[in-house]
Amino acid sequence: MSPAAQGALVGLLGGLGALLVVSRLRARRIRLDDRLAPYLRAARTESALIADAPPVRGPLAALERLAAPLLLDAQRLVARLGSPATELRRRLQRAGRTETVEQFRAGQVVSGALGLAATLTVALALAASRPVSVLALVVLVGVGGVAGVLLRDWSLTRDVRRREQRIVAELPTVAELLALAVAAGEGPLGALERVVASAHGALAAELGLTLADVRSGVSLVPALDALAARTGVSSLARFAEGIAVAVERGTPLADVLRAQAQDVREHGRRELMESGGRKEVAMMVPVVFLILPVTVVFAAFTLWAG
């Protein structure tokens, strides 16, 4: 790297550092609300014996206190640029994760920081080995940070898709188990309890939440509607709607459950056939654009050599 480029890089880094210092000083300006808050604090409504434990003090406690405001600002920036909190909370529920929106945002910030660190290391190695444009290095570091943030979001989307696939795969078996329990004389609530106690998987966990809602005082039909809204799976929504209609109208529940299981199996078979058709079309791409041209080249070379 030329001396002029090195000077420009040092000046850029110094300017960014000064900009960060000024922005933090302006952000930490004491407002009127902050001055009045100690005098208007609400009275304690719970015992001090059950208050949260004080944070653990260690060798990195000071570093954590210094990095906390920066982490909060980064979370706000990611929340402003990313998806809304309501949609993100619903996606976390569909993925079966127990983390909150704030914890997921913090994970995105950490992932972006790791991406920045990795690309910054690569950029410094490139700058030390050969002359490279400073603008290209800055763009590379920025792309690395954005990729780290998006990687966390992509991981959540992948978990949602995989969990929905597991729910669809488990739905026929769970429907058959419910039908057997109802045919043996169990009621809808008793059949749910038996299946939740004996089955394992993503759908059994969702039925466990529905059963907990019913035990807390919610009737069965609204609990099934909440199950359909919480998962977002169309097959499960039709399944819950069928059970709700059967319970309200007095339709034989065992027949409805068997019909629902058969419908889910037929839907899965159709999706498998459609996926096979798409894979067959995708397999034509290497045949047409790779294998066929190579075959033609070999045939032409054989005719030319002969």
From TrEMBL:
Annotated membrane-spanning segments are 6-25, 109-128, 134-154, 281-305
Question: Where in the cell is the protein located?
Answer: Cell membrane
Domain Type II secretion system protein GspF positions: 176-298
Provide the topology term for how it sits in the membrane: Multi-pass membrane protein
Q: Assign the protein's first listed, main location to one coarse class.
A: membrane
UniProt xrefs under InterPro entries = T2SS_GspF_dom (IPR018076)
**Stretches assigned to coiled coil:** none
What keywords does the record list, in alphabetical order?
Cell membrane, Membrane, Transmembrane, Transmembrane helix
Q: What is this protein called?
A: Type II secretion system F family protein
Q: Which organism is it from?
A: Cellulomonas alba
